Amino acid sequence: MRAFSALVFAIVYATTSLGAAVSQRSPHVEHERRSFSLENRGWRLARRMEPEAVLPLRIGLTQPNLESLEDVLMKVSHPESPSYGQHWTPHEIMDYFQPARETMDAVVDWLTSSGISKERLRLSKSRGWIEVTASVGEVEELLNTEYHVWEDGDGLERVGCDAYSVPEHVQPHVDIIKPTIHMGAHVRPPPNSYRKRSLSERATTTPTVQLGMPSSHNGPKTNGKKVDGSTTLGLADCDEFITPICLQTLYNIKTTERSGRNTFGVVEFTPQAFLQTDLDMFFHNFSATQVGQKPQLISIDGGVAQTQNQSFNFNGESDLDLEYAMTLTNPQPITLLQTGDLVEGAGFDNWLDAVDKSFCTFEGGDDPTQDGIYPDPLPGGFKGPESCGIIKPPNVVSVSYGQDEVTISAKSANRQCAEYGKISLAGTTVLYSSGDFGVAGFGGVCLDRLPNGTLIEDPNGAGSIFNPSFPGGCPFVTSVGATQVNPNSTVFEPEGACEQVIFSGGGFSNIFAMPSFQQSAVQTFLKEHPPPFSGAQFNNSGRSRGFPDLSANGANYVIAIDGEFNLVFGTSASAPTTASIITLINDARLNIGKGPVGFINPAIYSPVFAATFNDITQGGNQGCGTGGFTATKGWDPVTGLGTPNFEKLLALWLALP
């Protein structure tokens, strides 16, 4: 699994008149505060931001009906619902969550009474965001804060604040304001001062939200073992070498007839990219009829499958995802959602933009500290328009990337999570890998708690509090953990939790509440198998979202990478494998005139689906100086509900409307 970050939009310098005093109708109250240390992530405080600099401020309005998002999803996703499979249209979704008129009026009144004229305001087409270009001085007065410039490891500068406030009477109408507490916008460098990093530099630099890569400390890993490409590997070798036939046998996967109407998307973030020669090398050994096949590349914000830099760091993730997704679902075409240009990169919101027009940058959907902002003003950057609604959401989307939950504010996490819920409501299954460091965060980082209760990443790497991942903790995605064929065992014996090279990410969110569909399973775990840890180490409230939801093998995958065969480990392998199974089920449903399964969590947690999973009761997910959680009977925060049995799942989903 990978963590990632991306660069942000440029600030232009200009002189503007300062606004009048902020409205005194109610006192300011704190709206958001940063929960992680910039210094610990390689940033240096450079200076206080110049008051005459101009910020492109975006104010996200609160959306109505979000509190009922889970309820409406349950109606179209729970197998006992009479409305099962009746997914919503994009227009229906936009109308249902469009901010109320009184919300827009309250925010506009606040801005204009603070000296910002209506002519400077812009309402997004979805009516979800109000945009205004204002001076730093105006914004500081508006938000009762101070903006500072921070310098990153590349010498580029970014601006942000530690916390910000809004008037008490306005707060119920404001969801989130950007740029604020993360790192904010780029400061455009002086002419001729920008030195574009080489791709090799980008591969080895530790960014703010760590971008892990295969063979690095943050991503799917290798044990360095090479595989003789001439060796014929079979079922007897699956405890040491996982190949497609191992997975097909483990999970009872059978080929389905192609419907011709199915779609399966795999998300990758530039500069990570596949090599066609690697795909062909893999196909030659394990699926000979596919030699020469390519994924259907959709370029998002200048995304390109670059080939000038070739190494495990650059090609491992994409090669892994595509080799197994394409082989397991053959002849289903795979849509490669290649996201971000070579200069700026991208974040999760960028691929959401491409499949959800209402979430685009011009409407304020992106987070400039997490995502690429396009057109890219930096030299060599993508100068085309933002990729906005350029493709219908695929029926299944697999994403083998993530970040520590603590590195994104609760408001940003909730807003992004709601978007996953919306595209799920439209009939898409979104799967994310759960992480490779057990109960710890990327790189094995754990958390400490400040006296005020705020969780922060431990500055010395010695924290003892568990560090959950995002978006895997979002209740509207399906989080996928990792298992293994135990050493000296066969594919016909029970698997265990992955404890070779990586540990399956799992635990309990510090942001998201427990969704109703998993309440029974999680509460049973906490009651019958209480973890030997206190609330000082993890969120043991019994009201928190638990993850992962399910698992698949994540150990000893044979992949062709840079002209040779290697072994890799990680939930990065588990996610596309599970996504392939859901894709095959969708094909079978489409062939009999039914729709895709969409959001699968309510179904897989329901009693009727209990027998469709292979329960995992061995192993754990150590981290933070502990043995972590333990795989037990039923759901657990190591392997979730267990691993899928394709034929059993297929039979149940074919019987549903």
From TrEMBL:
<protein>
    <recommendedName>
        <fullName>tripeptidyl-peptidase II</fullName>
        <ecNumber>3.4.14.10</ecNumber>
    </recommendedName>
</protein>
<dbReference type="InterPro" id="IPR050819">
    <property type="entry name" value="Tripeptidyl-peptidase_I"/>
</dbReference>
<keyword id="KW-0732">Signal</keyword>
<keyword id="KW-0106">Calcium</keyword>
<keyword id="KW-0325">Glycoprotein</keyword>
<keyword id="KW-0865">Zymogen</keyword>
<feature type="binding site">
    <location>
        <position position="634"/>
    </location>
    <ligand>
        <name>Ca(2+)</name>
    </ligand>
</feature>
<feature type="compositionally biased region" description="Polar residues">
    <location>
        <begin position="201"/>
        <end position="221"/>
    </location>
</feature>
<dbReference type="InterPro" id="IPR015366">
    <property type="entry name" value="S53_propep"/>
</dbReference>
<dbReference type="GO" id="GO:0004252">
    <property type="term" value="F:serine-type endopeptidase activity"/>
</dbReference>
<dbReference type="GO" id="GO:0008240">
    <property type="term" value="F:tripeptidyl-peptidase activity"/>
</dbReference>
<feature type="active site" description="Charge relay system">
    <location>
        <position position="321"/>
    </location>
</feature>
<feature type="region of interest" description="Disordered">
    <location>
        <begin position="185"/>
        <end position="226"/>
    </location>
</feature>
<dbReference type="GO" id="GO:0046872">
    <property type="term" value="F:metal ion binding"/>
</dbReference>
<dbReference type="InterPro" id="IPR036852">
    <property type="entry name" value="Peptidase_S8/S53_dom_sf"/>
</dbReference>
<feature type="domain" description="Peptidase S53">
    <location>
        <begin position="241"/>
        <end position="656"/>
    </location>
</feature>
<feature type="active site" description="Charge relay system">
    <location>
        <position position="317"/>
    </location>
</feature>
<keyword id="KW-0964">Secreted</keyword>
<feature type="binding site">
    <location>
        <position position="615"/>
    </location>
    <ligand>
        <name>Ca(2+)</name>
    </ligand>
</feature>
<dbReference type="Pfam" id="PF09286">
    <property type="entry name" value="Pro-kuma_activ"/>
</dbReference>
<dbReference type="InterPro" id="IPR030400">
    <property type="entry name" value="Sedolisin_dom"/>
</dbReference>
<feature type="binding site">
    <location>
        <position position="616"/>
    </location>
    <ligand>
        <name>Ca(2+)</name>
    </ligand>
</feature>
<feature type="signal peptide">
    <location>
        <begin position="1"/>
        <end position="19"/>
    </location>
</feature>
<keyword id="KW-0645">Protease</keyword>
<feature type="active site" description="Charge relay system">
    <location>
        <position position="572"/>
    </location>
</feature>
<keyword id="KW-0720">Serine protease</keyword>
<keyword id="KW-0378">Hydrolase</keyword>
<comment type="function">
    <text>Secreted tripeptidyl-peptidase which degrades proteins at acidic pHs and is involved in virulence.</text>
</comment>
<dbReference type="GO" id="GO:0005576">
    <property type="term" value="C:extracellular region"/>
</dbReference>
<feature type="binding site">
    <location>
        <position position="636"/>
    </location>
    <ligand>
        <name>Ca(2+)</name>
    </ligand>
</feature>
<dbReference type="GO" id="GO:0006508">
    <property type="term" value="P:proteolysis"/>
</dbReference>
<keyword id="KW-0843">Virulence</keyword>
<keyword id="KW-0479">Metal-binding</keyword>
